[in-house]
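B., you asked whether I could sanity-check this one before it goes into the benchmark set. Here's the sequence:
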Amino acid sequence: MTKLQKKTIWLVLAIIFFTCKEAFAYIGPGAGFAFISSFFFLIATFFVALFSLLIWPIRFLVTWMRRRKVLARASAKRLVIVGLDGLDPDLVQGLMDKGKMPNFTKLAQQGSFQKLGTSCPALSPVAWSSFMTGCNPARHNIYDFLSRDPQTYLPTLSSAHIGPSKRTLKVGKYAIPLGKPSIKLLRKSKPFWRVLGEHGIFSTVIRVPITFPPERFNGLLLSGMCVPDLRGSQGTFSFYSSREAAEGETTGGIRIAVKKQSNVVRGHLVGPPNSISQRNEDLSIPFEISLSGEKARVVLPDQSFELKKGQYSPWIRLSFKAGLKITVQGIARFMITETGQEFNMYVSPIHIDPGKPAFAISHPRAYALYLSKLLGPYATLGLAEDTWALNEEIINDQAFLDQVYLNHAEREKMLFDALEKNRNGLVVCVFDTTDRIQHMFFRYLNPHHPALKDKDRTEHAGAIEDLYRRMDNLIGRIKERLGDGDEFIVMSDHGFKDFSRGVNINSWLWSNGYMVLKEGGCEGMWLSNVDWSRTRAYAIGLTGIYLNFKGREAHGIVEPGQEEAALKAEIIAKLSGLKDDGNGSGVAINRVWDRSEIYRGGPYQKNAPDMIVGYNEGYRASWDCAQGRVTNEVFEDNIKAWSGDHCVDPAMVPGVLFTSFKLNRDSPRIIDIAPTALALLGTGIPAYMEGKSLIAN
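And here's what the prediction gave me:
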């Protein structure tokens, strides 16, 4: 461990002692509050630190001996891995050929540049889980963003489970939890940085997806994708409008009507549900906004700040009072979008405040606090870029780009701090910028995209090229900070394709007799109108189809064995090569896989969807299908800003792999990165890893 690493850890411990001053609370979806007493936290921290000091000589000796053996085998002093989520190899190659990505070109000349085989399906949570564990989904248990509860047929988050405290104490109108909520990581297998830690190698891991809740290991980690917001959701924005018609829910957020009298707007910021109240009402904070032309002053009970139309505020710290002297802390950005006769204001999802985190979003817990002291407030929500606010036209293209690059700047600062502090071992950082901008701006690469109908086609036509050139600049600045003995990997988890047409698999299952609806027909979300007593198959998530198995699903009717095999074969034969008659009879689905074809040799194969859909370029699960709606139409135009995707046949969307060293073979796969990292840093490769080292002999 270097002196800089030791200083960082001691600073982290100091922050624990000197910043915990009051009780905070976390609200999960139905989980209630987990009260964390700063006093008991301090006492517990003291005894943990004391115990660690007492056993330190023994641990140091064991670690020193193991590390000495590892260093003798290592070919790298430090390995830096930068993940650029969704960076597409064809777009990269095209810009390199035009001389517009000089730093990527130099890295390719120094080492290598190849397409990187992705996971099946090619979804970020699946691919990044395969990256960190070196194995396929049957061994790490992540198959999609969503899974389903076979007892209720309702969707569940695939990566983590958040449950309520098992006991509560009722005091008047309050129901006080007597323990912490259950927060459990559902990803299985061991990330390669834990293997490194077992051999005395220190790692810094920043915002890699599917690392929430954080695991203990020898290093520092800030969790990424799937960290919830303060409401316990994966991101719920708020939109305040003087138009009364605005009241109600919208996809990805809530609309709240406010009163505008003369140049003053009054209302309440909607916060998380008050889970210590038996009424479970939302917490709120009153606000008053004074307008002056395109400027405004926002006044909250404990602070005020200036806003200018079309510009984001800095992160604003918010304190929601739940009662019993319990305060719920969060941060949000504000932006006023209309100041004329009517008033509109967007408020981002309320993130967990990293300066006062109510539960662990990092390892050690105080690493999040350390970064907050170093950088100020920063985005903590797993999906921090508000794609739904743009989809629902609450914000415009420019506002979305501004938001994404504000988040990106925070991530850069975290990475460069890690590069300065951690001079030996592993540094990993994943940037979401590349994924989010391509999702929302791919329409500009297709002049015939349905989302561009009757809209400007030029203002942001260069957004993706600008994105790629910015990433090239980032790679150049990172390379300047690398020294002798450092090796460098730049990679993406998948590529990107156009998404112009949606396919509703549930509508297809219904129209072909595999799904039966109750009386009333096509109504309701999350398959609420399905007659399960007569339904044989259904779709949940973005690529998965499940059979309604007897003995597995609550109302299953499909018998395992012969009936199962025949039904799978029938559905696969009909869906593979499915044509879209509304779009020139183009092929919408390349093929459908039986899970036994692609997931073998793993203990979690039983949790996989029974079939996986591989869409053709231009297609994806429709928005209605993704929300569990059964409609009369199987195919529909995609008119949303979310116009690029990768939920297609994995062969069509490989990622990129740039390395500072030569590779030992062509056709690398994402599961090869973990064993390659272990080999570079001198450790053995565990037997559970299916990937192979890419280091040239």
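One thing to flag: Residues 38-73 form the longest helix (36 residues). Otherwise nothing jumped out at me.
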